[in-house]
Amino acid sequence: MANDIKLLRQDLVVRGRLLLGFAAVVFLATGLAGCGSVGSLAEGDAFVAPNKYAMYTCPELNDRAKAVQARQVELEQVMDRAAQGAGGAFVNAIAYRTEYAQTRGELRLLAKAEEERQCAVRSQWSSGRAVF
Which of 17, 27, 41, 44 is deepest in the core (most CB within 10 A)? Predict the structure, then answer.
């Protein structure tokens, strides 16, 4: 009888640990699923402060946009080179993807700030001057 009670207790402890482990896995998966929902926002918007360029003037916004766009092109080139090698997708995801998403979000934010200030639109057909 004492052995039966002892075995029953051990069985309950093992089942409790399994249940606790299962609950931890479910909790972790739920938390990570929340991280995946960041992708439902515009990519990179989660990495950029909304009013980051509130005090910038039009020339400062233009200069910053050029610098960010140059960095984006540089990241695209580096990511393309890394993708050609073995494990390139992993390297891109670990090393470059976050910064690339940040530059995309920053470019969107810069475009929005330029539009709000009615700055001259950057275009291949634009002279860079506003008409007032």
Answer: 44
Rounded to two decimals, the pTM is 0.57
Each residue of 21-67: pLDDT tens digit?
666 665 655 555 555 444 434 555 666 777 888 888 999 999 999 99
SS (H, E, C) 15-59: HHHHHHHHHHHHHHHHHHHHHHHHHHCCCCHHHCCCCCCCCCCHH
For 49: left if phi > 0, alpha if psi spans -120 to 50, otherwise beta; the answer is beta
- Which residue segment(s) compose the domain that 63 sits in? 41-124
Domain tally for the chain?
A: 2
CB 43 within 8 A of CB 105: yes
- The answer to whether residue 64 sits within a structural domain is yes
